[in-house]
Amino acid sequence: MPRKEMILRVLAASPDDVQEERARLEQLIRRQNKFWSPSYGIRLDLVRWETDAFPGVGTDTQAVINEQIGDDYDIFVGIMWTRVGTPTSRAASGTVEEFNRAYERFQDDPEALRIMFYFCEADIPQSKLDPDQFAVLRAFRHSLEERGVLYFTYNGANEFEELLSLHLTKQISDYGKGWGKPTPGQVVQVKSQEEMVASSHEAALIEEETEDEGLLDVIDRGSEDFQTMNQSLQRMSVAVQTLGTRLEKRTDEMRNASSKKPELFMKLARQITNRTASHLDTFVSQIHSELPIFSESLSGAVNAVAMAASLAGEFASQDRQSIVALLEMVTELGTSTKGALRATTDFRSILKAWPPVATKLNRAKARALTTVDGLISELDKGVRLISAVEEEIRRILSQEE
Fold this sequence. Notes:
By secondary structure, this protein is α/β, with parallel strands linked by helices. Helices cover about 65% and strands about 10% of the residues.
């Protein structure tokens, strides 16, 4: 039998320096719709000027886009990185103008739509940096804070997709409760999967794309990823602690050597710096082998929780224990990750303070500092994503209360 489905339109607004994020948004919606639709009776439809606008004439290009796309959307997703875009006669850029229109709608009717804005904080290549554009971007970002807009930051397309998956699922689950005004025009009838398979020559493809995992299967998969992530975190923490202990010993040795005769001091100093360089290279190798494990397991865990949230429109009471256990694991991991981030940040200061004694040591130190910076970035990402995951699991549990 056909079933009813609510269509929510998502407007993507951004300059052209975040094409990867725009592609990830499209892929995410296409992938997750098959979970959102049966769980919540809601399907997202992405609106972009590339696909929803057509050649026309107006006072300027953005005016044509505004007229053709209009304000008929339910969720606004803004994305920026290095620039705000091309100015219009009405705003700092087309993206800013689209945000202003969405913000005015929200001010008039807070239940009409939801606004989500994201800023990339990845390093900017010199070739992409336009100082004037970046200054306007910073001013716009500050203006959002003044207007009470809570935006999120991310460090790469993967993190953006993971955050967005959690956030869109939350918006969908809250639709018709905390926000949204369903209209008859948003409701369509869709065929059941059985009818689609019976009437389509793409039956094999549909079967291949349909996930057989249930809620508990997804939770188990997420738990395994969180366990892997925790084990990797522990190994990296041990590596940081071990290197810190070794640096303290080498510092004491260098201090003691400084009281020796010059000829002996130079010989001892060379031995100490060589040992220290070896310690640093070992540390770099350990962290380089662990970071991919940490990052991949974090990504898998976040995706599993996002899928669990999509499947948890209604869940049986016997499932609650597994979800609570997952929450406890995530909370504990979040605490450990915050602790590791603090310890690694403190350790960086110790490492940076080591004097430039010899070329071999200086180069090893530079490699180690780069590695530590990468570790700090990954741990910081982990803290943000784990916090978002924890919030999402608590929301899942609150649905049964």
